[in-house]
Amino acid sequence: MMATVIHPLLLCGGSGTRLWPLSRKSYPKQFTQLMGEESLFQASARRLSGDGFADPMVITGSDFRFIVLEQLAAIETLPAATLIEPEGRNTAPAILASALVLEAQHSGSLMLVAPSDHVIPDIAHFRDTVMAAADAAQSGQIVTFGIRPTRAETGYGWLALSEKMGSDFLPTPLPLKGFVEKPDAIKAEDMLKGGEHLWNAGIFLFATSSLIGAFEKYAPDMLEKIRRAVENAQADLAFTRLDPAAWGKIDDISIDYAIMEKADNLVVLPFSGEWSDLGGWDAVWRDSGSDANGVVTNGPTTAIDCTNSLLRAESPTQELVGIGLTDIIAVAMPDAVLIAHKDRAQDVKIAVKTLKANGVAQAETLPLDYRPWGWFESLAVGGRFQVKRIHVNPGASLSLQSHHHRSEHWIVVEGTARVTVGDEVKLLSENQSVYIPLGAVHRMENPGKVPMVLIEVQTGVYLEEDDIVRYEDKYSRGQGAKG
User: Fold this and answer.
1) Of 40, 200, 373, 482, which shows the fewest CB atoms inside 10 Å?
2) What are the residue ranges of helices labelled H in 12-166?
């Protein structure tokens, strides 16, 4: 008898605006070290690995494709496939496209769909719960996982059961009565006391054939469009790019609305362990473990006479000090600071929307600008100059390029750089420098085994990132692409 194999799908597309300023569109929360030494994405990949689990599939946006590979490589994980969405279309298209790809490779496989930004401390218990749902999924059921509620939470959707749960909370599939939208406080309190509701985790297990059959029944038009997007997909290095023409015609809709609220073969399996989707800074405070005064600190911070508050500083060169704070969230980044009452944590997304409408760059971009080869940050900017720190990963290289409007001066401060300027190629070690004249064709590479860091001084009349004429690029980026 063949052992059950579950194929994880990590959904990796959201922007996490409620955790601004740490999480931004350019580098959302799933990739940040929010709750430990690993990112939420890495922790999710580890959780869905081991005996009984295949290598994970990932679906993400084009801007994050190299971050996905780099973070998986750091935990010695190779993705089974990495699908690239041309643009975000919510969870229904993402999940169906992935199911079609897996069905074509391994017909009738069990797919476990999980967001990549959740926190589940008891990994073994979660894996056991998933395995307990395998028989139901193999028999044609679509299994959703419900979390045992511990408070009258208004920030989550809930699952209504057909009967009251027992106190033993055994991992047994139960009939699902329906979905409940995020409730108000009174309704949430009633559901908590009633014992017939669970939090909706947004995690699903099903046979790929079962999900495709559900789309055939409830959303055939979407199924046809996504089939075309998959059939016309293009290979790009280690990625699979879904067809943008077909994808652009697909509705933006969640899997709950498209399928789950209509399906008659849906069951829920309770999970009794700790779980959080870290949907706001109040959740980070609650799930981080506070001191005797209810204070959570992270980074260079000092709390004096504070209670029930979160103080978090991200830069080693700044100190965040709180005095006499109660129920306050204070998050300091080098370029932005958030101060909010804990009860208003969900309104951070409103702040992000306001900043974006006002053209504030911090609404969506971080000081660190991540690239396939590493990252850079601007240290100083003037009218006709800019100073950057550039970090190049071992074995990585920037594209062969030139600029119309600026010259550059590079000073290596860590590691070794292989530098091309015109026809000349040379190695630079620490404290050595090179000048790149305006218009010169050039490239920098890191041939070593450790990161290479250099300081770049740009001078010219136009210093934006789109001033790049690209001649050759190992990451298959086109003209005008950044980096």
Assistant:
1) 482
2) 40-47, 65-74, 91-105, 123-132, 134-138
Residues contacting 164, CB < 8 A, separation 6+: 194, 195, 196
**For residue 190, what are the contacts with CB-CB under 8 A and spacing of at least 6?**
none
Q: Identify the CA nearest to 290 among candidates 277, 274, 307.
A: 307
| Radius of gyration in angstroms for the set of CA atoms belonging to the chain, rounded to a whole number | 25
pTM more than 0.70: yes
On whether the 6-271 domain is CATH 3.90.550.10, my answer is yes
Length reported for the chain: 483
- CA 144 vs. chain centroid, Å, equals 21
Distance between CA atoms of 115 and 118, rounded to whole angstroms?
Answer: 7
3-state DSSP of 153-165:
CCCCCEEEECCCC
Write the CB contacts of 482 (distance below 8 Å, at least 6 apart in sequence): 369, 371, 465, 466, 468
Look up residue 454 and give its two tokens.
């250099």
Token pair recorded at residue 391: 């970090």
Task: Give the pLDDT of the chain (483 residues) as one tens digit per residue.
Answer: 457 899 999 999 877 899 999 999 999 999 999 998 999 999 999 999 999 999 999 999 999 999 999 999 999 999 999 999 999 999 999 999 999 999 999 999 999 999 999 999 999 999 999 999 999 999 999 999 999 999 999 889 999 998 887 766 677 888 999 999 999 999 999 999 998 999 999 999 999 999 999 999 999 999 999 999 999 999 998 999 999 999 999 999 999 999 999 999 999 999 999 999 999 999 999 999 899 999 999 999 999 999 999 999 999 999 999 999 999 999 999 999 999 999 999 999 999 999 999 999 999 999 899 999 999 999 999 999 999 999 999 999 999 999 999 999 999 999 999 999 999 999 999 999 999 999 999 999 999 999 999 999 999 999 998 899 999 998 887 655 555
Contact 372, 68 (CB under 8 A): no
DSSP state letter for 27 = B
Cβ atoms within 10 Å of 376's Cβ, excluding its own: 23
Question: Are 386 and 458 within 8 A, CB to CB?
Answer: yes
Please tell me the class of the 368-472 domain.
mainly beta
Q: Pull the structure tokens for residue 393.
A: 């990963």
Minimal CA–CA distance to 280: which of 192, 322, 333, 343?
Answer: 343
- Locate the domains of the chain by residue range: 6-271, 281-357, 368-472
Count of Cβ atoms closer than 10 Å to residue 366 Cβ:
23
Amino acid making up residue 152: A
The CA distance from 334 to 237, in Å, is: 35
Alpha-carbon torsion, ordered 71, 76, 82, 85, to 10 deg: -10
